[in-house]
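S.,

As promised, the zinc ion run. Input:
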Amino acid sequence: MQLNTIIGDIAEQAVDAIIINLFENTNSPGGATAAIDQRMNGAISALLVGGDFKGKLRETSVLYPGETMPARRIIVVGLGPEEDFTIDRIRHATAAAAIRARELGARRIASILHGAGAGRIETYAAARAAAEGAGLGLYTFEKYKSEPGRQGVTSFTLVAWKEQNADALRAGAREGEIIANCTCHARDLVSEPPNICTPSFLAVHAEKLAYNHGMTARVLSDAKLRELKMGAFLSVGQGSAQQPQFIVLEHNAEMLKDSAPLVLIGKAITFDTGGYSIKSGEGMSDMKTDMAGGAAVLGALQAAALLRIPYPVVGLVPAAENMISGRANRPSDVVRASNGKTIEILNTDAEGRLILADALVYAGGYKPATVIDIATLTGAAVIALGEGGAAALFTDDEQLAERLSLASQSSGERIWRMPLFPEYAEWVRGSDVADLRNIPGKRYAGAGTSAAFLQEFTEGSQWAHLDIAPMASLPASKVVHPLGPAGATGFGVRLLAHMMLDGD
Ligand code: BES
Ligand code: MN
Ligand code: ZN
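Predicted complex:
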């Protein structure tokens, strides 16, 4: 889909659908909507008077302008009450209207910039959000469908009317388009079936990504991983016919000798059966999603390159498959991580923390400014926050918590901070035979204890852990209406991209 921006009159766009808006509880339209209402002899006012359209967020109504305008149809989208308006509502309104237009078969769409008028949002931020909303909302994954589904949208044009806003409009739209594309890149990887998206598939994919975006890629081989003594990571993959792959991506690699990088670590279990602590059929059903953290890191690194983030950013993606065989981990096995700590594996389904442990130690080798890991780590986070509720944030660093909270606000990706009580560390230290146990004795505070386990491997750098299990893949219409179809959300790419853009 081509994303365009122009300064002009929305009413003059000769496209398949033009998109205009209305706040909730307004009796009379304003701005471009008023102008169009006038040209159509009050057709929009009539919608309101008749009570056919309330202006609720994401509500849409379709009108046919006939001879009064060159466009084939007009889609009116609700923005919700004016006093509740936010940048995130621009994304949701743009996505809803674009999806409605596509359902009607529209291929060329023009939209006004929601929020730039009465919503009082800066053109730059409004354009960025609109571009994100269009790109995310119109996402599909139809690679394996023999019959192509609905026809795709070919062009989406953002129309602003003030001459002086042209640069802000263009720059904001460009940034939003990049962020949406990188999110859809992560969604594509998560949507891939697990027989295709194996650890080596991800490794090859990362190498191509690096080549296309001027980054450095390294994939650590089995021999190298043994040399680094990554016993925790290697143990998880040893039950699978697929070799584990440890992917290292560097943006601005040449700056690494002078400046401390931001290191992003993403869990990439390409399928999680649970191992011998096997999951139920239902529990296993969506476990191709267990590489969503890794996908988010690949998407975020692509965004770092395209957005020209001015400092070094490193992406670490430990990739493995958690399967069963004569070589797989047994409950009670003891492994040694690359920092020398021994771990008693009491549950082979708590595998994410094992692969992240060695990745966190590897991150320490960069003397990083900041380390953020992102992982579909626990069902307990889903229980605590709900499907589509928020990702759980764990950190002891107030400054990093604040930075992530700002990024959450500007990206619209919700995170919720949870505690790292010192007792949690005690619970994962209580092994009879090793330094640590991969699950505590009891099932309580499951998200917190997994975070406490990870903290054992952070060695003092500024660190945050994001448990994205509640957010990585959503059934249709959950707590937060996803921007796009059910399934992979690409959660984390927008959060991390906005964080990198908001400064260091
Ligand atoms: N990948 C799962 C966590 C998960 C569960 C993600 C549901 C998304 C939806 C993880 O590897 C896992 O199995 N965690 C266990 C940990 C337990 C054994 C301590 C869990 O949450 O049940
Ligand atoms: Mn598991
Ligand atoms: Zn898992």
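The chain has a mean pLDDT of 95. Residues 272, 274, 349, 351 surround manganese (II) ion (ligand 2) (CB under 6 Å).

- D.
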